[in-house]
Protein backbone atom coordinates (compact mmCIF):
# COMPACT_ATOMS: atom_id res chain seq x y z
CA UNK A 1 0.00 0.00 0.00
CA UNK A 2 0.95 3.64 -0.52
CA UNK A 3 0.55 5.30 2.87
CA UNK A 4 0.19 8.86 4.17
CA UNK A 5 0.81 9.74 7.83
CA UNK A 6 -0.89 12.64 9.57
CA UNK A 7 1.43 13.13 12.53
CA UNK A 8 5.07 12.30 13.03
CA UNK A 9 5.31 11.35 16.71
CA UNK A 10 6.57 8.16 18.33
CA UNK A 11 3.66 5.99 17.20
CA UNK A 12 3.80 7.28 13.62
CA UNK A 13 7.54 6.75 13.38
CA UNK A 14 7.50 3.14 14.54
CA UNK A 15 4.47 2.39 12.34
CA UNK A 16 6.32 3.76 9.31
CA UNK A 17 9.29 1.55 10.13
CA UNK A 18 7.16 -1.60 10.35
CA UNK A 19 5.11 -0.68 7.27
CA UNK A 20 8.23 -0.37 5.14
CA UNK A 21 9.55 -3.67 6.45
CA UNK A 22 6.28 -5.27 5.31
CA UNK A 23 6.65 -3.86 1.80
CA UNK A 24 4.46 -0.74 2.01
CA UNK A 25 5.48 2.69 0.73
CA UNK A 26 5.36 6.01 2.63
CA UNK A 27 4.06 8.63 0.19
CA UNK A 28 3.94 11.64 2.53
CA UNK A 29 4.16 12.65 6.19
CA UNK A 30 2.31 15.74 7.43
CA UNK A 31 2.72 17.36 10.86
CA UNK A 32 2.58 20.79 12.50
CA UNK A 33 5.59 21.93 10.50
CA UNK A 34 4.09 20.61 7.25
CA UNK A 35 0.26 20.69 7.37
CA UNK A 36 -1.81 18.31 5.27
CA UNK A 37 -2.25 19.29 1.64
CA UNK A 38 -5.35 18.07 -0.23
CA UNK A 39 -6.10 16.22 -2.35
CA UNK A 40 -4.14 13.27 -1.00
CA UNK A 41 -5.54 10.86 -3.59
CA UNK A 42 -3.59 12.52 -6.42
CA UNK A 43 -0.45 10.71 -5.25
CA UNK A 44 -1.93 7.22 -5.55
CA UNK A 45 -2.58 6.94 -1.81
CA UNK A 46 -4.17 3.69 -0.60
CA UNK A 47 -4.62 4.46 3.13
CA UNK A 48 -4.04 7.23 5.66
CA UNK A 49 -2.87 6.90 9.27
CA UNK A 50 -4.16 9.62 11.63
CA UNK A 51 -1.61 9.88 14.45
CA UNK A 52 -1.54 13.60 15.25
CA UNK A 53 -3.34 15.41 18.09
CA UNK A 54 -6.85 14.92 19.56
CA UNK A 55 -8.16 18.31 18.42
CA UNK A 56 -7.17 17.56 14.80
CA UNK A 57 -8.67 14.09 14.46
CA UNK A 58 -12.17 14.96 13.23
CA UNK A 59 -10.94 17.58 10.76
CA UNK A 60 -8.32 15.21 9.36
CA UNK A 61 -10.56 12.16 9.15
CA UNK A 62 -13.42 14.03 7.48
CA UNK A 63 -11.02 15.40 4.84
CA UNK A 64 -9.67 11.91 4.19
CA UNK A 65 -13.15 10.36 3.97
CA UNK A 66 -14.26 13.03 1.51
CA UNK A 67 -11.46 11.87 -0.78
CA UNK A 68 -12.73 8.30 -0.57
CA UNK A 69 -9.67 7.02 1.28
CA UNK A 70 -9.59 4.63 4.26
CA UNK A 71 -8.13 5.88 7.53
CA UNK A 72 -6.69 4.21 10.61
CA UNK A 73 -6.80 6.36 13.77
CA UNK A 74 -4.14 5.90 16.44
CA UNK A 75 -4.59 9.25 18.20
CA UNK A 76 -6.33 9.07 21.58
CA UNK A 77 -8.30 11.64 23.58
CA UNK A 78 -10.96 12.52 20.93
CA UNK A 79 -13.60 9.96 21.86
CA UNK A 80 -16.32 12.44 22.85
CA UNK A 81 -16.73 13.01 19.08
CA UNK A 82 -16.97 9.32 18.25
CA UNK A 83 -20.60 9.41 17.08
CA UNK A 84 -19.97 12.46 14.91
CA UNK A 85 -17.10 10.71 13.18
CA UNK A 86 -19.09 7.52 12.77
CA UNK A 87 -21.91 9.49 11.14
CA UNK A 88 -19.46 11.01 8.65
CA UNK A 89 -18.10 7.57 7.83
CA UNK A 90 -21.58 6.14 7.20
CA UNK A 91 -22.69 9.16 5.16
CA UNK A 92 -19.62 8.97 2.93
CA UNK A 93 -19.59 5.15 2.72
CA UNK A 94 -16.10 5.27 4.15
CA UNK A 95 -13.63 3.01 5.88
CA UNK A 96 -12.37 3.86 9.37
CA UNK A 97 -10.68 1.80 12.08
CA UNK A 98 -9.73 3.28 15.45
CA UNK A 99 -7.77 1.91 18.39
CA UNK A 100 -6.70 3.20 21.76
CA UNK A 101 -3.77 0.79 21.55
CA UNK A 102 -2.70 -1.31 18.57
CA UNK A 103 -0.44 -3.81 20.37
CA UNK A 104 -1.74 -7.35 19.70
CA UNK A 105 -1.04 -8.36 23.30
CA UNK A 106 -3.27 -5.56 24.59
CA UNK A 107 -6.22 -7.09 22.73
CA UNK A 108 -5.63 -10.35 24.60
CA UNK A 109 -5.24 -8.45 27.89
CA UNK A 110 -8.56 -6.67 27.38
CA UNK A 111 -10.38 -9.87 26.46
CA UNK A 112 -9.05 -11.66 29.54
CA UNK A 113 -10.02 -8.64 31.64
CA UNK A 114 -13.61 -8.85 30.45
CA UNK A 115 -13.77 -12.52 31.43
CA UNK A 116 -12.24 -11.79 34.83
CA UNK A 117 -14.72 -8.99 35.58
CA UNK A 118 -17.64 -11.23 34.72
CA UNK A 119 -16.44 -14.06 36.94
CA UNK A 120 -15.80 -11.75 39.89
CA UNK A 121 -19.46 -10.69 39.95
CA UNK A 122 -20.03 -13.93 41.89
CA UNK A 123 -17.17 -13.11 44.29
CA UNK A 124 -17.86 -9.64 45.74
CA UNK A 125 -15.06 -10.01 48.28
CA UNK A 126 -12.63 -9.23 45.41
CA UNK A 127 -12.03 -5.54 44.63
CA UNK A 128 -10.72 -4.57 41.20
CA UNK A 129 -8.24 -1.81 40.32
CA UNK A 130 -6.67 -0.84 37.01
CA UNK A 131 -3.26 0.85 36.88
CA UNK A 132 -1.55 2.36 33.85
CA UNK A 133 2.01 3.67 33.47
CA UNK A 134 3.40 5.72 30.57
CA UNK A 135 6.20 8.14 29.72
CA UNK A 136 6.06 11.66 31.13
CA UNK A 137 5.29 13.26 27.74
CA UNK A 138 1.99 11.41 27.25
CA UNK A 139 -0.79 13.96 26.74
CA UNK A 140 -3.85 12.10 28.06
CA UNK A 141 -4.43 10.68 31.53
CA UNK A 142 -5.76 8.09 32.09
CA UNK A 143 -4.48 6.57 28.87
CA UNK A 144 -6.88 5.75 26.06
CA UNK A 145 -6.10 2.08 26.61
CA UNK A 146 -6.97 2.33 30.31
CA UNK A 147 -10.29 4.04 29.54
CA UNK A 148 -11.07 1.50 26.83
CA UNK A 149 -10.24 -1.35 29.22
CA UNK A 150 -12.23 0.22 32.05
CA UNK A 151 -15.29 0.46 29.82
CA UNK A 152 -14.78 -3.19 28.86
CA UNK A 153 -14.84 -4.14 32.54
CA UNK A 154 -17.98 -2.09 33.24
CA UNK A 155 -19.78 -3.73 30.33
CA UNK A 156 -18.84 -7.20 31.60
CA UNK A 157 -19.72 -6.62 35.27
CA UNK A 158 -23.10 -6.21 36.95
CA UNK A 159 -21.40 -4.89 40.09
CA UNK A 160 -19.28 -2.05 38.66
CA UNK A 161 -21.21 0.99 37.48
CA UNK A 162 -18.48 3.59 36.79
CA UNK A 163 -14.75 4.12 36.75
CA UNK A 164 -12.98 6.93 38.64
CA UNK A 165 -9.44 8.30 38.13
CA UNK A 166 -8.46 7.85 41.78
CA UNK A 167 -8.56 5.30 44.62
CA UNK A 168 -12.06 4.52 45.90
CA UNK A 169 -13.67 2.55 48.71
CA UNK A 170 -16.98 2.29 46.85
CA UNK A 171 -17.38 -1.33 45.61
CA UNK A 172 -19.41 -0.04 42.65
CA UNK A 173 -16.48 2.04 41.39
CA UNK A 174 -13.46 0.91 39.39
CA UNK A 175 -10.35 2.93 40.30
CA UNK A 176 -8.16 3.73 37.28
CA UNK A 177 -4.81 4.99 38.57
CA UNK A 178 -2.28 6.71 36.28
CA UNK A 179 1.49 6.84 36.70
CA UNK A 180 3.92 8.89 34.58
CA UNK A 181 7.48 7.59 34.68
CA UNK A 182 10.67 8.41 32.85
CA UNK A 183 11.35 5.94 30.04
CA UNK A 184 8.15 3.94 30.48
CA UNK A 185 6.78 2.57 27.19
CA UNK A 186 3.41 1.44 28.49
CA UNK A 187 2.17 -0.93 31.21
CA UNK A 188 -1.43 -1.77 32.15
CA UNK A 189 -2.13 -3.86 35.23
CA UNK A 190 -5.50 -5.20 36.33
CA UNK A 191 -5.57 -6.33 39.97
CA UNK A 192 -8.35 -8.16 41.81
CA UNK A 193 -7.69 -8.52 45.53
CA UNK A 194 -9.50 -10.03 48.49
CA UNK A 195 -8.32 -10.32 52.08
CA UNK A 196 -6.57 -13.59 51.24
CA UNK A 197 -5.73 -13.55 47.50
CA UNK A 198 -4.42 -11.37 44.71
CA UNK A 199 -5.04 -11.92 40.99
CA UNK A 200 -2.88 -9.77 38.73
CA UNK A 201 -3.14 -9.50 34.95
CA UNK A 202 -0.54 -7.29 33.25
CA UNK A 203 0.41 -6.20 29.78
CA UNK A 204 3.81 -4.53 29.44
CA UNK A 205 5.07 -3.11 26.17
CA UNK A 206 8.81 -3.74 26.04
CA UNK A 207 9.24 -2.00 22.69
CA UNK A 208 7.16 0.47 20.69
CA UNK A 209 7.39 -1.83 17.70
CA UNK A 210 4.46 -3.75 19.21
CA UNK A 211 2.25 -0.71 18.53
CA UNK A 212 3.62 -0.25 15.02
CA UNK A 213 3.09 -3.89 14.09
CA UNK A 214 -0.47 -3.83 15.38
CA UNK A 215 -1.25 -0.63 13.48
CA UNK A 216 0.01 -2.05 10.19
CA UNK A 217 -1.86 -5.32 10.71
CA UNK A 218 -5.04 -3.30 11.34
CA UNK A 219 -4.50 -1.28 8.15
CA UNK A 220 -4.01 -4.43 6.10
CA UNK A 221 -7.24 -5.85 7.58
CA UNK A 222 -9.19 -2.65 6.84
CA UNK A 223 -8.24 -2.68 3.15
CA UNK A 224 -10.71 -5.50 2.49
CA UNK A 225 -13.66 -3.96 4.39
CA UNK A 226 -16.16 -1.12 4.40
CA UNK A 227 -17.52 0.65 7.49
CA UNK A 228 -16.61 2.07 10.88
CA UNK A 229 -14.58 -0.38 12.98
CA UNK A 230 -12.94 -0.72 16.38
CA UNK A 231 -9.72 -2.68 16.80
CA UNK A 232 -11.94 -5.25 18.55
CA UNK A 233 -13.63 -6.01 15.21
CA UNK A 234 -10.28 -6.87 13.67
CA UNK A 235 -9.32 -9.34 16.39
CA UNK A 236 -12.78 -10.84 16.78
CA UNK A 237 -12.60 -11.74 13.10
CA UNK A 238 -9.31 -13.53 13.81
CA UNK A 239 -10.44 -15.30 16.98
CA UNK A 240 -14.05 -16.01 16.08
CA UNK A 241 -15.86 -17.41 19.09
CA UNK A 242 -12.67 -18.54 20.87
CA UNK A 243 -12.66 -17.84 24.59
Concise structural overview:
The chain contains 7 helices and 11 strands.
Describe this structure in words.
By secondary structure, the protein is α/β, with parallel strands linked by helices. The protein has 2 domains: about 130 residues, NAD(P)-binding Rossmann-like Domain (Rossmann fold), CATH 3.40.50; about 100 residues, Dihydrodipicolinate Reductase, domain 2, CATH 3.30.360. The protein contains 7 helices and 11 strands. The strands form 2 sheets. It has a 6-stranded parallel β-sheet with strand order 2-1-3-4-5-11, with helices on both faces. Strand 1, helix 1 and strand 2 form a beta-alpha-beta unit. Helix 1 crosses helix 6. It starts with a strand and ends with a helix.
Please describe the biggest sheet, giving its number of strands, its sense, and whether it closes into a barrel. Answer: 6 strands, parallel
Helix content: 25-40%
Sequence of secondary-structure elements: EHEEHEHEHEHEEEEHEH
Radius of gyration: 19 Å
Tertiary shape: elongated
Number of domains: 2
Oligomer: single chain
**Global structural class:** alpha/beta
Q: Can you tell me the CATH topology of the largest domain?
A: Rossmann fold
Amino acid sequence: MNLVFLGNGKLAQVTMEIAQERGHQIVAVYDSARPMVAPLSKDGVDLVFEMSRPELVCHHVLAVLEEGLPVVIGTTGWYERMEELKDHCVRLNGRVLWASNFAPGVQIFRRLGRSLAGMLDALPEFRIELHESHHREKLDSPSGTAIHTANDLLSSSTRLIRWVPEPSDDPRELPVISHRLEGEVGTHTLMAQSDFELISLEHKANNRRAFGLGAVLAAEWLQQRQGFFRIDDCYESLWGSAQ
